[in-house]
Structures are given as C-alpha cells and as structure tokens.
Design brief:
The structure holds two protein chains of two kinds. Chain A is built from eleven helices and 14 strands. Chain A is of the alpha/beta class. A seven-stranded parallel beta sheet of chain A has the order 10-9-8-11-12-13-14, with helices on both faces. Chain A has a five-stranded mixed beta barrel with strand order 3-4-5-7-6. In chain A, strands 1-2 form a two-stranded antiparallel ribbon. In chain A, helix 7 links the parallel strand 11 (248-251) and strand 12. Chain B is 20% helix and 28% strand. Chain B has helices spanning 3-14, 110-115, 123-133, 153-157, 171-179, 206-213; strands at 17-21, 46-54, 57-66, 74-76, 101-108, 120-121, 141-145, 159-160, 163-164, 168-169, 185-188, 217-220, 231-237, 247-249, 252-257. In chain B, strands 1-15-13-5-7-11-12-4-14 form a nine-stranded mixed beta sheet. Chain B has a two-stranded antiparallel ribbon with strand order 2-3. In chain B, strands 6-10 form a two-stranded parallel ribbon. Classes of the chains: A alpha/beta, B alpha/beta. The interface between A and B is medium-sized, with 19 and 20 residues.
Chain lengths: 420, 259
C-alpha cells in the first residue's frame, strides 16, 4: 500500500550494514543428540527447567544417562530447582569448531547444580567462580538443548551467547502478516516498546475498512503493507520488497469460522480457512523463508525467528469447529517442515498454540479467552527466551495437559461438550 | 460469406465499426461482493502458477485459475435468484445463445452518482432518457453508466459500518424496465446490479428480484461505458458454459459505429 509511508522508528536506529561485507553464513552446530537426550529438547522448547531424574532413587543426573548412574533405575525428566554455583570458568579464545570460532571468545563454566550433578554450561560474562547462578535450559541455534548460567536476577540479554540463542526483537525489523488479527495492535505496541526498528503489518483486502488503522499507524515504526497470504501475487510482491529486510515474521493470518462437518457450506468455509492457514503458511514460507535462512547468522541484527500463531484446536477441536481445527492442524504439520528449512539457517520457528481469543468469531466459546494483549506479551516473551512451543491461555494449557494424559478421553469430552 | 457478414467484416476492418472492451481485468485484488459473514462467501480470483519456463515446465507458461461465479466483470443468470429458480434455461450452460448478442441502451447517471454514492435510477430518469432518445426497445440491455468503474479499491467497494454505498436502480424503475419495456437485462459498473443499500428496499434487492424472476440477466463491474452511445451499441456477452452455473466472469465486448 502506498498510502502509509511511515519512516523507521528513529529512537531504535540500527547499525547500518556494510554492503561490501560478506554476510556471515550459517554454520552447523556440532553434536548430534541421542534419542534420550531429546527429552531435554522438549523441556527447553517450552522453557521449562527439567533434568533427568531417576524414577527409583530420585537422584538428578547430567548429562542425560540411559539409566541412573547411582542405582541403575530408569530415568525420566523432572522439574528441577534452577540454582547452582560456579566451580570454574574459562574463555575459549580460539575454538576448533567453525561455529564457535566465528563467535569467539566464548565463555564456558563448570557449575555444581543445587540438585546434585555438575554440568558444563554456557556462562554469562558477569558470573565468576564461587558465584551463585540461575540455570536455564535453552535451545541453541541448532535447536538442541543446552544449559546457560547467569547471575540470579541479572540481565541475561547482556550476554552475547544468550542473544545468540534467543530472538530479542530489539533493533530488528518485524513483519506481522495480518493487521486485522485481534493481537495485531497490542503486538505492534509491545514490539515498539521492545525497541523494534520497523513493524510492517500486512493488510489483506485493503478495500475493506480497518477500524484500527489510525491506532496502528500511531505506533512508532509501524506501517501497513498490502499482504493477502491467500494470493501468490500479493505474497510475492511483498517478498520482493521486504524478504531481505525482515528478521522476525509473526504469522497472525487466521480465519476463524465455526461449523460442524455437516453444516451448510462447511467445505466452502474449510477451503477458505485452508487457503489462509496452511497454504498461506506455505506461500509465506516459500517467499520469505529462503532470505530469512540466508541471513540467520548475521549477528545481532540478523534474521532470528518465525512465529506462527495457531489455535490449540490444531491438536484437538470440538466437532463444531471441524474445518477450523483441520486447517490449523494442517498448518501445524506444515510448520514442522518450515522449522527444518529455517533451522538450516539457524532461524527459529516458534509455535504459539492459543486458546480461543477475544476475536468475535469465538463469542460462543467459554471464558477465559485470550486477549490480544496477553497473546502479544506471550510472543515477546517467547522471542526473548528463545522458546519454540508456547501454550497461550488457560484453555490451551488445560487442553494440552489433558491430551498428554489421555487423548482418547479428550476426543470423547470434546464431542460430548461441544467446546474445548 | 453472405452479404450481411461481408458488410460487418468490411466495417470492422475499415474502421466504421469499433470494438470496445467493457471488461475489468480478472485479478486477485479486485473487490468482490461482501455478504454478512455468517453466509458463505464467493471465493476471490486466484491465479496460481503451474510453470513459467522453469523446472515445473521448461518450455511453457500456464496457471491454475480459481474463482467464484460472481467475481470481476460477470454475468448473473436467472437461477442466481430465488425468483428465477423455476424458470427453464435459467443457468448459464443452457441460456439461449441468441441472447448473447443484443443491443444496448446506456443511461448516463454520472452527474447524479458523482454527488451521491447512494444515487438511485428512478422512473423519472428513464422517462427523460426516452424523451430524448426514444423508447427502450424490447430485448435490449440497459446499462447504468455512473463512472463508478473509474474508482479503485476501497472507493470502489465503498464499504461503511452499515454496508456498501453504491448506486443502482430503485424498485419501481427496474420493475418498469422488465415488465413494461421487456429488457433483456440490466448492467452496472458497480459490484452488483442492485444499489449497495438495496437489502433495505421493497422487495429486497429489486434488480435481482425482478430481472431474474422474469428470466432476465444481470451484468456487473462493467467499464468503459463512456465509450458507448446512448443507443445503437451491440453487446457481445457470453458467460462461460458452466454446468448448471448461476453466472460467470466473462469478456463483454461492444460494437459501436464510428460517427
């Protein structure tokens, strides 16, 4: 759209990049993980601090063992206290591995965890031997679970290693794909507060009124751009302008339409929802993904994240939301492929699984519903903590817990109650 | 070749006849009709590339097209409205082909529509037009020229909190055209043959009601009507032969005599 030329947010000016300098290329991180080790991946993806723990004797272990090193009992993941004390620290000035050599010096330390084991960790520059530290289980650029330790109550963002493993929106340029989403305005405001350099908001069917237009354009650094994720041409046109500039994509495109399988025009609605959700994601991924992955190693201002805002109905939907659940399930399946593609460049794909939002199309569903502001806060937090899977709202958390426990029971409950 | 077609051919090549394209380009950002969201919606135009001299087809370029029947410059068949549901030959696949070539009368409403988005074509306008140009002949298209096709995007759809505000005929005028003048159909430059606020008319959507209930047709989203004379143009309007279709996008051409 040409009617909204808004200059970049001056208070968050970026460091200009040198067009003659070769963009730093993504390098594979070392270290394949065992199947057992991926227990930690799941916890790190959700931002939980959980460690391997013997189900027989209750001792924690690190690194993850196949069986308990103390009693040979079986090992499961258990929530652990995140405290510890630094035993020793060193800085790798010239690491042998190409990834770490590009990013040297790299500080590592040996930490005695409060729950027992000792672990080699990525150590915050402000933590020295003898210091108490808070440990975080997080995903590195390759999506593998690692431990980071830093001062209790300290600002982790001051550690370059933390920034390398997370996706802070500060000074970055963000594309929100659908300005009509209930979270678009609060998210734009939250991003501006977080120091985002530019916020581009996609507007499908610009010939329809946009009640939040003035409020959106009042957000520092925000501008509206024509984008309809159901149109090849629209997506390609915007990618031609922006694919090389965007560092964070927040895909908010959605089309909530209720209707059971037998409802009038159910398949017409389902097709429209599929165009927006799964095929829309495919179009966006194909148009923006390659450029994002190419710039995934470009330092503090490089491409870092793709956030998919999906409904928790992707996992299980009441019968009255048949097409909507199917469209979101398809999008969730596709997002795993996109995660692998973006991951080659070290760009993280974040899945936000939300309960029903304050969107008027969910008006018949029970409270509590997720407000746009709550969803916006969750997205900013996920970026800053480097999360990969986030349940947003009590309804989503409850449904996911019930699914983990007994998915067949959930199927019957949703069919009987007709709601989440 | 007989004499009439020879004369037509000579007139076309000799420049005495001109062909005017009354069609908007079928593109994916052209506004479509917006119904209350609880109803089903027409799918917009989508053009998806299969290949363009690339790995998916090294020597050829082609696309997959998808759209609802009522998008872009399009034709409404009698079966589109409930009033025409029981009529024979009411769908586009079985329409009489003789109806696809017909004369057109053009009612210039540009002055009225320029100052009033909700401008209504009334019987009084039609009487004044006939006083100047003679009676509207049976079997003719009546085209309402408003200049609306010069608008773009939001101005073209002109949606407000209470719906679309676009010009169209009032109930008495369209009924008189259908019943007293026996027109073939009614065409507009806007998204519908009815005015934007026509859901509040009596009957609701009178153009759809009377036209299709009497086996007549609608044309909408026409353009270049300013290039047509008030009468004398011949319209070629042949919808796609969609099986049991209620309408279709189409190419509308007009033949006009050079004066």
């Amino acid at each position: 759209m040409t009617d909204t030329p808004i200059p970049p947010h001056r208070s968050h000016r970026r460091t200009p990049s040198d067009p003659l300098r070769r963009t730093r290329q993504p390098l594979p991180l070392p270290g394949a993980r065992s199947r057992a080790a991926h227990l930690l991946t799941a916890a790190a993806a959700r931002g939980e601090f959980a460690l391997p723990c013997c189900t027989a004797c209750g001792r924690y272990a690190w690194p993850i063992p196949e069986i308990c090193p103390a009693c040979l009992g079986s090992v499961a993941l258990a929530t652990a206290p995140p405290g510890g004390r630094v035993l020793s620290a060193t800085t790798a000035e010239v690491p042998a591995d190409p990834y770490f050599r590009e990013r040297a010096p790299w500080r590592v330390g040996l930490v005695a965890l409060d729950c027992g084991p000792q672990a080699v960790v990525h150590l915050h520059p402000a933590s020295d031997p003898g210091d108490a530290v808070r440990l975080t289980l997080m995903l590195d650029r390759a999506g593998q679970a690692v431990l980071h330790a830093g001062p209790i109550g300290g600002d982790m963002q001051t550690d370059p290693k933390w920034r390398e493993m997370t996706a802070d929106p500060a000074t970055r340029r963000v594309l929100i794909t659908d300005a009509r989403h209930v979270a678009a305005l609060p998210l734009a405001r939250a991003l501006a507060n977080a120091g985002t350099a530019e916020i581009h908001l996609g507007l499908p069917e610009p010939w329809k009124p946009l009640p939040t237009r003035a409020a959106l354009l009042a957000v520092p650094g925000a501008r509206l751009v024509g984008l309809d994720v159901t149109s090849d041409r629209s997506v390609a046109d915007l990618a031609a302008d922006l694919a090389g500039r965007i560092e964070i994509v927040v895909n908010t495109a959605d089309l909530p339409r209720p209707g059971d399988l037998l409802a009038p025009a159910a398949q017409v609605q389902a097709r429209a929802m599929t165009e927006v959700l799964s095929l829309g994601l495919m179009r966006m991924g194909r148009a923006f993904g390659p450029a994002l992955a190419e710039r995934g190693a470009d330092g503090d201002q490089g491409a870092v994240a793709w956030v998919n805002v999906l409904s928790v109905m992707a996992l299980a939907a009441p019968p009255g939301w048949a097409g909507y659940g199917a469209a979101h399930a398809a999008a969730l399946a596709l997002s795993r492929s996109l995660r692998a593609e973006l991951g080659r460049g070290g760009v993280r794909l974040v899945t936000m699984l939300t309960g029903p939002t304050e969107d008027s199309w969910f008006q018949t569903l029970d409270h509590p519903r997720v407000t746009g502001a709550a969803l916006a806060r969750a997205i900013i937090e996920a970026l800053r903590r480097g999360l990969e899977e986030v349940a947003v709202g009590d309804v989503a958390r409850d449904l996911m817990a019930r699914l983990a426990e007994n998915p067949k029971a959930v199927e019957r409950e949703l069919a009987r109650a007709g709601r989440l | 070749m007989n004499g009439i077609l020879q004369a037509l051919s000579s007139a076309l090549t000799g420049g005495q006849l001109r062909v005017i394209d009354l069609t908007q380009t079928l593109r994916d950002d052209f506004p479509t009709i917006v119904l209350p969201p609880e109803f089903g919606q027409a799918a917009p135009v989508r053009i998806e590339r299969i290949s363009r001299y690339d790995a998916a087809g090294p020597s050829w370029y082609w696309n997959n097209l998808s759209f609802g029947e009522h998008v872009g410059t399009h034709f409404d068949a009698p079966a589109h409205w409930f009033t025409g549901r029981d009529l024979p030959r009411g769908t586009v696949d079985v329409l009489p082909v003789t109806d696809m070539l017909a004369p057109a009368c053009v009612i210039d409403c540009t002055d009225g529509a320029a100052g009033d988005d909700d401008f209504l074509l009334t019987r009084a306008h039609l009487d004044r037009w006939e006083a100047v140009h003679g009676p509207i002949n049976p079997g003719a298209w009546v085209l309402m020229r408003t200049g609306w096709s010069q608008r773009r995007g939001a101005d073209y759809a002109n949606l407000r909190d209470d719906g679309a505000h676009t010009p169209g005929p009032d109930a008495a005028a369209i009924r008189w055209l259908v019943e007293a003048r026996g027109i073939l159909g009614f065409g507009t430059e806007t998204i519908g043959t009815d005015a934007g606020q026509a859901s509040h008319f009596d009957p609701p959507y009178p153009a759809h009601h009377y036209l299709h209930g009497n086996g007549r047709y609608g044309l909408q989203s026409l353009t270049n009507l300013h290039e047509l004379p008030p009468r004398g143009a011949m319209l070629f309007a042949a919808p796609l032969k969609v099986h049991a279709g209620s309408g279709s996008p189409l190419r509308v051409l007009a033949l006009v005599e050079e004066t």
